[in-house]
Design a protein that fits this description.
The chain is of the alpha/beta class. It is built from four helices and five strands; from the N terminus they run βαβαβαβαβ. Strands 4-3-2-1-5 form a five-stranded parallel sheet, sandwiched between helices.
């Protein structure tokens, strides 16, 4: 089974990215035969920026995204969304890649389930 998780909100300010990555990490932990794909759109492009610093005791989206990748998730970032936010040339979390709507549309077609946060 292939599950694509689409995240639209910024890494901080709401808990949508946090909850989406909680689910991605649980899927990766509990279901070895499930392929998890994460597509970051709009303000969620910022989720893949490397070297995030959060206060002690506060969740860190970068660490959560790295955990998803370590569990086998594929992570792509909307290229035009990243470009609009000045993120095309910043350091990204290792394993996250700039992508396109073409790749995203292929992921949607290939997925058994698409979840949007």
């Amino acid at each position: 089974m292939v599950i694509t998780i689409v995240i639209n909100d910024a890494p901080y300010g709401t808990e949508k990215a946090y909850n989406a990555l909680r689910l991605a990490n649980q899927l990766g932990k509990d279901h070895e035969r499930v392929t998890v794909r994460i597509f970051l759109m709009a303000d969620a492009a910022g989720c893949a920026v490397a070297n995030q610093s959060t206060p002690s005791g506060y969740y860190n989206i970068e660490r959560m995204l790295k955990s998803s990748i370590a569990k086998g998730a594929e992570v792509r970032i909307c290229g035009s969304c990243a470009d609009a936010r000045g993120l095309k040339n910043v350091e990204l979390v290792e394993g996250a890649k700039i992508s396109s709507m073409s790749e995203f549309s292929n992921w949607v077609v290939e997925s058994d389930k698409v979840l949007v946060f």
